[in-house]
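Field guide to reading this record: the first block holds the primary sequence, the second block holds the structure written as discrete tokens, and the final block holds curator observations. Each block starts with its own label. This record concerns diguanylate cyclase, catalogued under organism Oceanisphaera avium.

BLOCK 1 — SEQUENCE
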Amino acid sequence: MPLATHNAQAFHFLVDMLETVEIGLVILDLDFNIQLWNGFMENHSGLTSTAVREKNIFTLFPELPQEWLKQKIDTVVTLNTRAFTSWELRPYLFRFSNSRPITGTAPYMYQNVTISPMAEPNGRIERVCLMVYDVSDEACSRLELEQANQKLNQLNKIDNLTQLLNRGAWEETLHQEFDRFQRYGNDCTLMMLDIDNFKIVNDQYGHQTGDKVIRHLADAMRACLRHTDHLGRYGGEEFAVILPETNLDAAHLIAERLRLTIADAELHSINSRLQYTISIGIAPLHAQTEDAQQWVRQADDALYGAKHAGRNQVVCSLS
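BLOCK 2 — STRUCTURE
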């Protein structure tokens, strides 16, 4: 085969490969003018190779991170070495729509990018090549897995019946607030509350009605308390609330408002109407409080005092 024919075939093969490969190929000169723009880039940008050739890439794509990309290219040229960036650090370089059917819900194409120096025969670096990889499938799968794990982790912290924090998650918050108090000394008060005569409710109306009472109390707590307060189901019919930035007097007013809300409420169950009450114990956090467990005991002792005094009332810790 004549050398000219062989070279022509090799050139045709190379051009065909550049046009059909599933990687974006962009060659820039050092003034950031486009020298090559392959089929992948045409298909996803909507701009033909003829339309972009010798045009400045930042003029055509003003949304590109200009300073970042210039710095990357300068490093590649100066050190004569490749540079990489992944979708985890920068989701995309070119904001292309995502056309993958599997990951069609993604807002754009996730991309990994490699920037390579291109040496002339004399060894000088006159151009760089940007290789753009569509990694949408990988990225979306990773993100979906992370979201699923986050949701599972969140579900592990929630009490199924009330949708409040379960005891384990609430106790984590308790220790965090105790540590914050030790650092900053801001007011913080703990409130423990319990449904009065809950066994009688279960025995007389059944456990389904008992669950309805527990859910009603959880809803009332959400309505009466602030979004900054930490609400948890401590166990059974007992609940616990941390009131940050709240002194004893303010906590007492909050507790009384909740108590009265419950006492005035009326629940409807099968063929009956039901009212119930709660008892509440509150304990402010003091510098003398040794640990979070002691803080809970102080509030629990106050709750026991409210029960012992006749129920349906608020008692403050004397410690």
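BLOCK 3 — OBSERVATIONS
Residues 37 and 110 are 19 Å apart (CA to CA).
The chain has two domains: 3-143, 157-316.
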